[in-house]
Amino acid sequence: MTAAPMRMRLGPQPGEEIDRSRSFTFSWNGRTIAAYAGDTIVSALAGSGERVFSRSFKYHRPRGLLTASYLDPGCILQVGDEPNVRAAHRQAAAGMDVRSQNTWPSLRFDVKAGSQLLSRFLGPGFYYKTFIWPRRLWPVYESVLQRFIHAGQVSPDTPLAAADKRYAHPDVLIAGGGPAGMAAAAAAAQSGARVMLVEEEHHLGGHLRWGGAADLAALSELRDLVAGMPGVEVLTDAVVAGRYDDNWVAVVRRGLPGGAEQLIKARVKVLVAAPGLIERPYVFHGNDVPGVMLSTAVRRLINLYAVKPGERAVVLTANAAGDAAADDLRRAGVEVARVVDARSGGDIVAVRGHRRVRSAELADGSTVPCDLVVTATGWTAPTALLNMSGDRPVYDQRAARFFPAELPEAVLATGGIAGDGSRDQLIEHGRAIGREAARRAGRIRRDWQAALPGRTVLDELAVLDEPAGPANGSAGRPSAGAAEPVPVPDLPVDAHPELFRGRTHGIVDFCEDVSSKDIAAAIGEGYDSIELAKRYTTATMGPTQGKLELVNTIAIAAQAAGKTIAETGTTTWRPPYAPVTLGALAGRELEPVRYSPMQPWHEAHQARPLLAGAWVRPDHYGDPAAEAINVRERVGIIDVTPIGKLDLRGPDVPKLLNLLYVNKWSKLGIGRVRYGVMCTEDGVVFDDGVTGRLGPDHYLMSTTSSGAAAVWEWLENWLQTAYPDWAVHVTPVTTAYASMNVAGPASRDLLTRVTGGVDLANEAFGYMEVRTGTVAGVDGCVLWRIGFTGELSYELHVPAAYGLAVWETLMDRGQDLGVAPFGVEAQRILRLEKGHLIVGQDTDGLTRGFSAALDWAIKLDKDDFAGKPELAWQHDDDSGPRLVGLQPDDGSVVPPEASQIVEGTGVGGTGVGGTAIVGRVTSSRMSPTLGRAICLAHVEARLAAPGTQVTVRLPGGRLVTAHVTEHLAHVDPEGKRMRV
Amino acid sequence: MAAGARATAGRRRSGRPPRYSAFTLLRHGLSGEQWPRVWQEHPLQRSYDVVIVGGGVHGLAAAYYLAANHGITNVAVLDKGYIGGGGSGRSTAILRSNYLTPEGVRFYDRSLHLYDHMAASLGYNVMFSRRGHLTLAHNDASLRTMRWRAEVNQIQGIDSDVIGPSEIRKLVPFLDVSEKARYPILGALYHPPGGIIRHDAVVWGYARAADALGVHVHQQTEVTAIDVVDGQVRGVRTNRGDISTPVVLNCTAGWSTLVAEMAGVRLPIQTFPLQAAVTEPVRAFLHPVVVSGTLHVYVSQTDRGELVFGASVDPFASYSTRGSLEFAEGLAGHVLALMPGLSRMRLLRQWAGLCDMTPDFSPVMGGTEVAGFYVDVGWGTYGFKAGPVSGEAMAECIATGRTPEIIAAFGLNRFGEGFLVGEKGAAAVGH
Amino acid sequence: MIQIRCPWCGLRGAGEFRYTGDVRTRPDPASVTPQEWRDYLYFPANPCGPVVETWYHRMGCRRFFTAERDTATNEVWTLEEGMR
Fold it and tell me: How confident is the model over A887-942, as pLDDT tens digits?
């Protein structure tokens, strides 16, 4: 298919940003459109004579170009599978598939445009006033409303577009690359600062780009200056998305391959806001008809893209930009039918037309046929970055815009946001601000250095107050703030008529289809603060984030409420300053995953992975029940590397253990091990594990896998804040060791074959003892004789680098003993058979010590320990549930974990049918050893006596009976098997 | 109710506000007639029977139910800003009742019931959309907690169950339910009655209905002191003048401890910011509300097409409502971990509200040691969904002088007695 | 993200630290009443303004230190000095 001719394309323009030597085509709603390199999607479309790009939100009115910039609300299009592309900003590329959004059946003929006829009934908040009855029909109404969603479409198959984030460390970051921003960048760099200059558009220059010959000459000079300045990094098509506390600044680079964006984060010493000004639309009847444009849009189209915006124009101007637009139009061969000067009372009353402007009705009563209406009625200062810096900009009635009020030391403003003035005045202001920024950055840098103990403050060099040329390499960073503040000239502020709404009502928020009439109606209904009116009408809530419409909204609300703009105030500009893709914010997925050194073996042996916090562990190797049986009958080995391990040294370790464990530790002999439980200060069980004494002042503590980090912090907290005089040194060694538990009746036989320096005989190395020695030729191993599984077992902590070798040796040497690996699932079965609790599963966030069946461990006769008072009171009042062993009477039924224990109807219950919850199953498995279901459960204390029968409600509602067992342990309650 | 009731500004109204319906919409559309004001402005009276501090959904609901259920209409609702400007307007407006404890389930279920009938009873469409609510489980510990909640819910008669990945995928095709995901989706607690609502509409609906019953809503009215004499509330002082009253109800969030301190009451509350964010709209693709406790993220799509995101509270206590970049980064990472297809959607706006965090993730409701000083505070991150039932219960509490059974577990005295509410149980069980 | 001055490591982003709450005095467990103990457990200082807190430089030197922070503005003044 051949492309439509570029019938609105002008001859070469002096400042054009298109490359006529490179052309290509892309698709627009299925048609082929020609473009030049440098064209935006919309400039190419406009060059081909397209005028309508979308339909409005509520009334589905045709919408065309308004601002010809990123903010253009009518130019938000679908590109391939990317929704909501700012097509007046995004550069066209060969083969792009560009479509209008949410039009049906076509952009030209949209059936939903029928809602225009209903517009008088679809006032603000109309949905709050209807669809109320009948209640059951609301879902139907809702699905109709959803069809009006004014947006593009996402696809689940879109590949993840995320770029790596970058940290930058500029001294001065300048938001905005117009004349003032460029001058500031050069001046700051000249003073020795490292500068990042961020410009939202594709080229530096701001409004100079679409200016006359003198502007273009100045621009060229500034570009050369910036380009030749070492220490300035220029980012175009990038935006400062937010200024957060302490000058933490987010910059988003757009336009990376694949539609990705990159987030750059910078702790900026000084932020210079130089965003320029945003031209404000004028509100009057028909102000959204395609062909009504801002003066800056017209100037961009002609000067940057050589596109003729129309054939016959009416220009409403209140300022020099409007006058210049009229000149540009004439130069481009557009017939300027009338220039209406708002400064002398001229006004446009209404624009007629539907798919295109047909005529303009003027205040003098005349009607001028035209296809283009240009307005230049004032500026909005995009103060968002200043708001985010804590400033409350103030409204200046004389200039009809907001100005910065009081900026923190680390934030400066220059350019249009700070004032008006000639091009040279703006550049001069920027230059002074740049130098001042560098000076302040130097001082802030010195303060940061001074905050670092043991460092001498650098940069005591004299400040380079007026360097003649670019800083040489050795001058380096901005110098200390010895210099006086740089005198910054005041920018003049020009008078500008206050023009917000004309004599008729029109659209205020083009994204949301909110008219001035709507805002006035909302105020009249009582939504009379700006915040309420905004929320009620949804004005400023759309994709342009209020940048185009906020000030008009405030002005119209103020007028309707009979207040001034200053009284009405402003609403909070919230970050981000510009929309940011989720891909940029997310960056590459960097969540760590932890594996033990034995992972290659597990993978080679078909281990099924289990995610446990950050750890990936073998859940089982195919048959967990068989793995458990093998431990009971022969010998199994499990990888327990994730167990937390803390090396404790110092004479005061026993004091620490006594303080943090509920049991006693003073008399632990060398080589002995004890089980310990920790509670928080509210008496709630927090962690458990074993601690062994390796030497006179040397202990090794183990914690739960998930609690490793928290326990370490808990120890440090007590040591550093409560008992700084205690001589204890804590070193986390969790991953310094690979840990494996060798369990089963044959475990001693197996270990005897590979262990050196340790007598493994029961008399020499008994239950709950610890030794250090050599395993499989590896020195420095720690061997614990403990029994989480209930079997004779040895837990080995092996220097991590040898973990895999030791594991393989054990597997190899134990073949004739029937050694086999077992996973977490088999371990859970075994420990449940043994009745050992798991903190966090058999306890919860309210389980105090006596509720976890720890009566035997809690020593209330100790002077103090964490949580003691609560435990003492729990002991006195016997409150809280109890952890018990439980067996369903029908041993073939395993109640799923979290099954509730209930008391049936008529017991004054609280649930449906009077069912009361009196406990829950916390752990349950089919016991391969016993061939029956076994459980641990929480029950109310009155039900905790052995033999008590309870009712368990299975998921789905079936009730089964179960009885409380005498011990938590279902297998070997006396613990004989561990002690052989 | 006469369809043509034309209450005009200034006329004392009692009973129902002017009716909203398709018919009145049509009539106003045809005639171009101005709608009556939703609520009136009143001078601040020297005395009220009840003064409610905080014009959010809790305070306005309490005022409405005091008037509607108990005939107590000489009530002032004071807000230092505009109504619904605090937690109510910053909430992500998710409704559900699938809590962990029987007391929690019963309470929120009543709230859901009131929400369900709210549009009709207030004559204001609050757009309650029962989308269904999915809480994803990424590991077996969290799956166990989901099962726990499902069991408790079912016993209380709440529609709630654990479903598997294939059913989840059917409900939300954008979710990555593959095993290769960094946080694989093992299952979810599915709660069909849950959903979202238009939060502002709830606030405005209550304000309008309360106003019609004679309640005075005073915006831009900040309480500066509470007068207590001999252990009894006597009045409040405001930036607009003093009010004598025997009853003050503290319905603030964020500033609740400061207001309570004025009456000499200490609360077990710390103020934390909670951030939220919204994207640009896209065409409807996400029907249910999706929550991941492990990833601390919740997502829903509004009728306007925006995705609304929330997360857990900020890592340190603060009264600052400036958002942080870390929140936006973490949020985006977690959303894309769940739904990788959304990487080109754009975040449009982020904000923060203030949350009253209590030690047991449950509110503090009822009377205090100061006679006449009531609290409805400590709402953590879940206050919005409890607004109607809290208002109803607090109105009953004030009107009858007795603590209703439905809030008995939430008394201030539980902290001194060491009987915390069990919602903390699940929060501390490994997510 | 605010910056916090660690007495040992200088100014660092708050993300490196763990907030461990306002500084409270632990009552003597030997003589404490339930009311006093639960006051200590459950009733934090919650001013809108300066409060003295403990912070932990989790991703740095792993030292706990006290700092005063204005909860309205999040300005932080570290109250300890590291070795100079």
Answer: 999 999 999 999 999 997 643 445 666 789 999 999 999 999 999 999 999 999 99
What is the least distance, in Å, from the CA of B282 to any CA of chain C? 30
Secondary structure (3-state) at A657: helix
- Taking every pair of Cα atoms in chain B, the longest distance, rounded to a whole number of angstroms, is 66
Angle at B60 between CA B58 and CA B62, to 5 degrees: 70
d(CA A338, CA A360) in angstroms, rounded, equals 10
Q: Is B315 on the interface with C (CB under 8 A)?
A: yes
Where does B37-91+199-268+361-422 sit in CATH, by number? 3.50.50.60
pLDDT(A182) > 90: yes
Residue in C34, C38, C48 nearest the CB of B319:
C48
Question: How far apart (Å, rounded) are the C-alpha atoms in residues B100 and A475?
Answer: 65
Alpha carbon distance A673, A430 (integer Å):
72
pLDDT tens-digit series, residues A69-121: 999 999 999 999 999 999 999 999 999 999 999 777 677 777 666 666 667 77
Q: Are A557 and A501 a contacting pair, CB within 8 Å? A: no
Distance of alpha carbon B153 from alpha carbon A592, whole angstroms:
35
User: By CB neighbour count within 10 A (0-12 exposed, 13-18 middle, 19+ buried), where does A953 fall?
Assistant: buried
Q: What is the DSSP string of A529-548?
A: SHHHHHHHH-TT-STTTTTT
pLDDT tens across B401-426, in order? 999 999 999 999 999 988 888 776 55
The per-residue pLDDT for range A455-468, each reduced to its tens digit, is 655 544 334 343 43
Q: Show the CA angle centred on residue A121, arms to residues A118 and A126, nearest 5°.
A: 125
Q: So what's the pLDDT on residue B17?
A: 85
Spell out the residues 6+ positions from residue B371 whose beta carbon is closer than 8 angstroms to its own: B231, B232, B233
Q: Kindly determine whether residue A536 and residue B324, on different chains, have CB atoms separated by under 8 Å.
A: no
Q: Which residues of B touch A162 (CB under 8 A)?
A: 336, 343
Rounded to whole angstroms, what are the CA distances from A638 to A476, A598, A701, A839?
Answer: 58, 10, 19, 20
Which residue ranges does chain B devote to CATH 3.50.50.60?
Answer: 37-91+199-268+361-422
d(CA A788, CA A839) in angstroms, rounded, equals 13
pLDDT per residue as tens digits for the range A374-405:
999 999 999 999 999 888 999 999 999 999 99
Q: What is the pTM of this model?
A: 0.94
Beta bridge partners of A48: none
Q: How far are the Cα atoms of A588, A593, A702, A805 from residue A597, in angstroms, in the given order?
A: 26, 13, 19, 9
Question: Nearest CA to CA, how far is A697 from chain B (Å)?
Answer: 34
Residues whose CB is less than 8 angstroms from the CB of residue A664 and which lie 6 or more positions away in sequence, other chains included: A658, A859, A862
Collapsing DSSP states into helix, strand and coil, what is residue C53? Answer: strand
Instruction: Give chain A's length.
Output: 980
The domain C3-78 is classified under which CATH number: 3.30.360.10, 3.40.50.300, 3.30.2270.10, 3.40.50.10190?
3.30.2270.10
Question: What is the second-level CATH architecture of the domain B270-287+295-357?
Answer: 2-Layer Sandwich (3.30)
CA–CA distances in Å: residue B252 to residues A275, B200, B258 = 39, 17, 10
CATH 3.30.9.10 residue ranges of chain B are 270-287+295-357
Which residue in B226, B44, B255, C2 sits closest to A247, CA to CA? C2
Residues 15-54 of C with CB under 8 A from A: 18, 20, 26, 29-30, 32, 34, 37, 40-41, 54
Residues in chain A with CB shorter than 8 Å from the CB of C4 are none
SS percent in chain A: helix, strand, coil, step 5: 30, 25, 45
Binary contact (A139, B351; C-beta < 8 A): no
Distance CA B51, CA A900 (A): 43
Chains that touch B (3 or more CB pairs under 8 A): A, C
